[in-house]
Fold this sequence. Notes:
There is one protein chain. It is built from eleven helices and nine strands. The mean pLDDT is about 95. By secondary structure, it is an alpha/beta fold. Strands 1, 2, 3, 4, 5, 6, 7, 8 and 9 form a nine-stranded mixed β-sheet that branches. It has helices spanning about 20-30, 50-60, 80-90, 105-120, 150-155, 170-175, 190-200, 225-245, 260-270, 285-290, 300-310; strands at about 10-15, 35-45, 70-75, 95, 100-105, 120-130, 135-140, 165-170, 205-215.
Amino acid sequence: MMNNPIKISLIAPVYGVEKFIADFADSAFQQTYPHIEYIFVNDGTKDNSIQVLDSVIESKYSHLRNQVKIINKTNAGLPAARKTGVEHATGDYIWHVDPDDWLELDAAESIVKTIEETGADVVYFNLFKEYAERSKIKRDRPHAADARGEYVWDMFNHKSFGSVCNKCINRSLYENERIIFAKYSYAEDTFLSSQLVGSSKCIAFLDKPLYHYRKTNPNAITRQNLRKKHREYALNFMRLYDHYRDLPLSESPIASIHDEILIKVGWYTILYGVDLYADYPYLAEDIRKAKVNRKADVFILGQWLAKLKAMFK
């Protein structure tokens, strides 16, 4: 337990959200919990997002100005923007959010209460998916406090949310020099979440929807070209596997998904033409050794086809 009030660093990368950022700012600045550091990373946005944000702060929230940081940088993509935000954070816990979404007004207060009750390094919670004419609560899958590997496996296999937006994470986990950020934007959240959850000591599920995820933004990452998305996915996760490959499984935060990464990358070389065998000379052998899992994301025939192709590499 902490003697001083727990401080939350709310990190929002800003790019192309001029139409949404005022609503997000209202939901962030009206939080019922006062001990929040607001970090907005301007990732070289070409619209008026920052001007709108400044106007909202000046007109309604000038009393919070000393809690707000606006970091300007050249455009380098979402993962780099999140990393910049972490580098400027001073809070005890970090919550990554996207400023085309919005928050329940008691979100931070509910999270902090859970941290105080459990001492968890990672608090994860439910969210709302917001469509044009309806809102739907999406519930995450609860896990035991020490079931970190199971949670990582579920995130990678789309049985739990890989998003960083439904997780508030102890800043000390980011200080582990092994933790890396993704190079590409698609699935960058699962890439990061897997490492942080896998490195934690205790996780806690808060069975309450706190985050409103907007599904109507035409510029959202999830609306990218399908082939481009899967190429970025394969490149990101092969880099993640390579980064931890030299560690014993007992020390790897992503040990529970080593086989799944290999087989999915192998399957994507067939399905989407993302051929990484030349870049990673050990890939074929590791895929051949990987275990098939009927519960995994890739259907069973796809897993065997990936292993079969690896036999001829």
